[in-house]
Design brief:
Largest sheet: none
Strand content: under 5%
Number of helices: 4
Number of strands: 0
CATH architecture of one domain: Orthogonal Bundle
CATH class of one domain: Mainly Alpha
Radius of gyration: 19 Å
Shape: globular
C-alpha cells in the first residue's frame, strides 16, 4: 500500500491535484509516524549546544516497526474517519468550503481501503 500511495502522490504532484497531494502526504506521514519506535534511554553527551544528543557509532540510526497490511489499512481508515469527522464539524459551523475539501480528501483515501 505504501508503494501505491507514494506512486500516486508523485502522479498527483505532477497533475497539481492539491486535494490528492494533501491527503496522500498526510496518510504517508501517519504511516511513517506509526513505524517510529520510541527512543530507548541511552547515554547523552555533555554537549551544551545539543540537548539530549546521543553519542557513539550508530547514534543517528533509529529502529522502525514493521507494519502489516492490516496496520496500514487501519491507519488509512483512521485518516478517512478523521477527515469525515472534521468535515462534519466544519459543516456545522458554516464552513462548507473547508468541509467539502476534507470530504474530497476522504474520498481520495477511500480508494486505498480494501472492500470489507
Amino acid at each position: 500500500m505504501r508503494t501505491t500511495l507514494r506512486r500516486d502522490l508523485t502522479a498527483a504532484l505532477k497533475a497539481r491535484d492539491r486535494v490528492a497531494v494533501s491527503a496522500l502526504r498526510s496518510a504517508l506521514a501517519a504511516i511513517d509516524n506509526a513505524e517510529a519506535v520510541p527512543a530507548p534511554d541511552s547515554p547523552t553527551s555533555d554537549a551544551e549546544h545539543v540537548a539530549g544528543a546521543v553519542v557513539g557509532v550508530g547514534a543517528a540510526e533509529a529502529a522502525r516497526r514493521e507494519l502489516t497490511a492490516d496496520d496500514l489499512h487501519a491507519i488509512v481508515a483512521a485518516e478517512v474517519a478523521e477527515r469525515v469527522d472534521a468535515a462534519t464539524g466544519y459543516a456545522r459551523s458554516g464552513r462548507a468550503e473547508a468541509a467539502d475539501r476534507l470530504r474530497a480528501e476522504a474520498d481520495v483515501l477511500r480508494r486505498y481501503l480494501r472492500p470489507e
